[in-house]
Amino acid sequence: MRMYDIIKKKRDGFELTKEEIEFFVEGYTKGDIPDYQISALLMAIFLNKMTKRETVDLTKAMLDSGDKIDLSNIEGIKVDKHSTGGVGDKTTLVLGPMVAACGLPVAKMSGRGLGHTGGTLDKLESIKGLRIELSKEEFTRNVNNINIAVCGQTGDIAPADKKLYALRDVTATVDNISLIASSIMSKKLAVGSDGIVLDVKVGSGAFMKDFDNAYKLAEEMVDIGNSMGRKTVAVISNMDEPLGYAVGNALEVKEAIETLRNNGPEDLVELCLTLGSHMLVIGNKAKYLDEAREKLVDVLESGKAYEKFIEFVEAQGGDVNYVKNTSLLPQAEYVLEVKSDEDGYVQSMNAEEVGKCALFLGAGRETKESEIDLSAGIVLAKKVDDKVSKGEVLAYVHSNDKGKGEEIVRRLKDIIKIGDKNKDEKKLIFTIVKKNS
């Protein structure tokens, strides 16, 4: 088998066989095939696309290129949740304890933030002492004992994806549905969960900016998951504005804790109820979505979800006083107000630009080596469709650099658009994508 023939075949619009896909993935991972040949193939795939069968085979080949996480020692059905990334997305911090309090094991392997999207692990490190590096034994024991553990990814998961993504990033071949879907799912399938619920974000703060592409991506990932024996469902949710009010690590932890105390933002609560309902049904903890939703509402209102979060923090070595008294969480030296210059309604706020503002303040990473300021970020006082009076506060900027904070105040005044009321009511959940939907 020759790489030249594989490139030519895809260039001419033909379907690659399973063996050809395995050949180039294995060869490139081992270093036997040079970058220039894989670059040519990626461009051929980008231009001519892949069939569903090719996409599944590519995902499996990337999955098989590295380690797989065995969760068989964890009792019960394991259901994973994955978000395609957004601004202010602290869903895992709320959803994990809610679902765990309903009796479903949450064995979560999360990542760090890069760019304008935040990482769950960074947020959790706002809590003093909390460890996100757990041994396999600790991880398993915690899930079996209290139904929840969150840690960094261990082992060499899908190394083929790391190499291919780095090449896609510099050859303008990132924006292809099959390549994106196989990249995400190869990593998700490497963790031995029984089911996967995907939160596919769409809008200004998401990777997918328009609904049609978000739907195609969701459909592709659901097909991959189900074809590989994992019950998979995707929820397409709105990321045209940040989720909740807080953007920034400690600020988002504080908002997550308030939500677990049953005092959270409406959109964050609704998204957690929607995602959690599908998780409970896949995990056989509820027969129907309505029943699942009732159980989730009950653990929020009764305080059981909040208690579960305290158990989780304690089990991973964190100081629970930081949960009970959120004023102990890292706090910025300066809190600056962004005030409206006019009366009206919030028409829009570009979520990606808000995320970039938080990144500029130090709440995110420009590169993997960047240091994060856990206290920095933005707390919105108004959301899209809210009425605003001149002089009223639109947002609070939390910064340890006054000059940077003042610059973000100016930028946010331009990002948060004030005007007449929007005619169309905003939607949080656009649709659910299931097998054969």
Automatic annotation (TrEMBL):
Names of required cofactors: K(+)
Gene Ontology CC: cytosol
Any GO molecular function: thymidine phosphorylase activity
Limits of the Pyrimidine nucleoside phosphorylase C-terminal domain: 345-419
Complex and partners: Homodimer.
Recorded family membership: Belongs to the thymidine/pyrimidine-nucleoside phosphorylase family.
UniProt-recorded name of the protein: Pyrimidine-nucleoside phosphorylase
Organism per entry: Caloranaerobacter azorensis DSM 13643
